[in-house]
Amino acid sequence: YLYASAGPGESSTDLVYSGHSLIAENGVIIDETPRFDFATNHIVCDIDLQRLQNERLKNNSFAASPPGK
What we know:
The chain is an alpha+beta fold and about 70 residues long. It has one domain (about 1-60). The chain has one helix and three strands, in the order E-E-E-H. Strands 1-2-3 form a three-stranded antiparallel β-sheet, with no helix packed on it.
């Protein structure tokens, strides 16, 4: 799972953006940036896609959703 929010300098009358970014693998957060930090941040990490694919084959809950949904 990858998530990246626009920075705190990006806002409107309806929303405030935190600039928070995170990378998670199989429900575990691997790395994340601080929220509401005006400095430019980035994160980089390796994700084991083969491990995730094997988990999806073993775990029936991944098969509960039809493809493309």
